[in-house]
Amino acid sequence: MWAYTVGFTVLPHVGGFLGWFLNRKEIPAWYEKLKKPSWCPSRKMFLVAWTVLYTGMGYASYLIWNDLGGCSSKAIVPLGLYGAQLAFNWAWPPFFFRARSLKMALIDILCLDVLAMGTVCSWSRINKVATLLMVPYLGWLAMATCLTIRIWKDNPEQKKGKSE
């Protein structure tokens, strides 16, 4: 059973790592030049936060999967919502960093917020520990959403390649 625990716990990190790897050159080349609010976390804080958050949400998804008896019909909605929010989570870095589309990143994170809240609501009747493991993620998403809105408002969009 430990293989399932590890697999579910590591899964969110896969997309997070790929998002970082594919977009790592955009951070110093573009992101650092954006106007950001004073309360914007440092790059190191993002790394630490996402490591903790991905680990927590991954383990929480394992608890839900385990409590529902694996991929059963009862697991479709709770794990489907989780998978959908994870996909939107993974889609944000390419929209923001690669495409430099602040508007698409904002739309993505707003959809992510709704899906993450839906995930937590659907999990609350299944496993309290899993639900509590998602609370820091919801808090971080609230901050990340506010940050995305602020960056979008403070940095008029430009076509990629212009004014670099």
N-to-C terminal Cα separation, in Å?
A: 50 Å
- Mean pLDDT, as a whole number? 91
Proportion of residues in extended strands: under 5%
Order of SSEs, N→C? Answer: HHHHHH
For the largest beta-sheet, the strand count, sense and barrel status come to: none
Whole-angstrom Rg = 17 Å
**Class from helix and strand fractions:** mainly alpha
Task: Describe the protein in words.
Helix 3 runs antiparallel to helix 6 (128-154), helix 4 runs antiparallel to helix 5 (102-124) and helix 5 (102-124) packs antiparallel against helix 6. The chain is 76% helix and 0% strand. The model has no long low-confidence stretch (mean pLDDT 91). The longest helix is centred in the last third of the chain and has 27 residues, at 128-154. The chain is elongated. It has six helices and no strands.
In short:
This protein has 164 residues and is mainly α. The chain has six helices and no strands.
Set down the secondary structure blueprint.
Elements: H1 2-23, H2 26-29, H3 43-67, H4 76-98, H5 102-124, H6 128-154
Helix pairs in contact: 1-3, 1-4, 3-6, 4-5, 5-6
Tag the structure with descriptive keywords.
164 residues, mainly alpha, 0% strand, elongated
